[in-house]
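Please check these two lines:
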Amino acid sequence: MVSSLNLTYIHMRINDLFKSDEWFCGKSVLFIGDILPLPPVRGKPVFDKVRASTLIYWLGSNGAVNIWRDSVTYDKLTINERQQTNQKFSEMLAK
């Protein structure tokens, strides 16, 4: 799992490479997977705000950020393609 602090690190590294103030330098970043089942180890989920105290401790930076809320749009997948041919199994998983 990627924590909100890891997402901040990714953003900062991309900014180091491309020299821009935009989130991820305006580049498209593709996140794939299910972010809800397990929280990151010793971290907060990507959609939680990174507290100012955490940024000061780890980065020497000031100010809280929520990169996920401010920069990410997502599409929720609602059609179960994998079990589409087995209706009984699909209904059992949905319970």
Q: What stands out?
A: Helices lie at 4-18, 52-59, 67-71, 87-94.
